[in-house]
Amino acid sequence: MKIAISSDNHLDVNKVNINDALKFQARWLNANHLDYYLYAGDLFNDFFKTRSYFEHLQQLTANTKIAYIIGNHDMLNNLSFSEAEHSHFPSYIHNQFIDLPNSNWRIIGNNGWYDYSLSAYRNQLKKVQAWKNVYWLDSSIDQPISDQERMATVITQVKHQLNLAKENNKSVIFLTHFAPRHELLAAKPKEVNTPRREHFYQMVNAMMGSDRLGNLLEDSNVVRYVFYGHLHGIHPPLTCHDVTYLNQSVGVSNKRINEWQKGNFYDQWTTTLRIINLP
């Protein structure tokens, strides 16, 4: 069983030609005989475009099963909170699982979320929420509950899925978007050297993920791999309590910022792809 995983392609932000990207990725997946292509969120700033892309990609890769969850960017447009939580779309596996044929492996997907716990402001919820409402793009996402309530829902969903996996003697590959451990965050940049920059840095960290998810995954004794996105740049694998965390974000390259290690999207995508071979 050969599986490829990617995330954070940001095709619109990176101004990638969509038809060219579809053809390239389909051709690569077919040529390399992938059984599954998993995607961990942030393809477009519009769920309709994300859904359409994966539906077309699946049509072009008959021998590769496509499965994806979404990130905060995908949630910005054309997606209600209810739709995000209840999977009615082909290949969308939030709060769903896939059992790999002829094996004891199970893929569990959950978009994840954040609860400010990765920030020094973790106990100043109103302060962080006020900042988010003014400065952070997620404030436009349809969300009738608080970030802490949304993260609690994630924990409840994942706990249920892990209990099912344990009952069925499955080893789990977990796919999520947001960071499940604070150790996965990049080291603080040296440019964060003033109170104002420290304030901004801590506010951004509040939106990165939650240790609650990582603790739950590690305590389960069934999770072996966790593939996450959201954090751009290079993030080496991290293993904690027999769980290996892997990041495969393509990241963003434009006039304002360049997070790529390669000179074009296609080389960056193939370089950052994570590939695992399962017995």
What is the gist of this entry?
This protein has 279 residues and is α/β, with parallel strands linked by helices. It has one domain (2-277): Purple Acid Phosphatase, chain A, domain 2 (4-Layer Sandwich).
Description:
With 279 residues, the protein is α/β, with parallel strands linked by helices. It has one domain (2-277): Metallo-dependent phosphatases (Purple Acid Phosphatase, chain A, domain 2), CATH 3.60.21. Helices cover 34% and strands 17% of the residues. It contains 8 helices and 10 strands. It has helices spanning 18-31, 47-60, 81-85, 125-135, 147-167, 195-206, 211-219, 265-272, and strands at residues 2-6, 36-40, 65-69, 96-99, 105-109, 171-175, 223-228, 238-240, 243-247, 274-277. The strands form 2 sheets. A 6-stranded mixed β-sheet has the order 4-5-6-7-9-8, covered by helices on one side. A 4-stranded mixed β-sheet has the order 3-2-1-10. β4 and β5 form a beta hairpin. It is globular, with a radius of gyration of 18 Å. The model has no long low-confidence stretch (mean pLDDT 97). It comes from Limosilactobacillus urinaemulieris. This is Metallophosphoesterase.
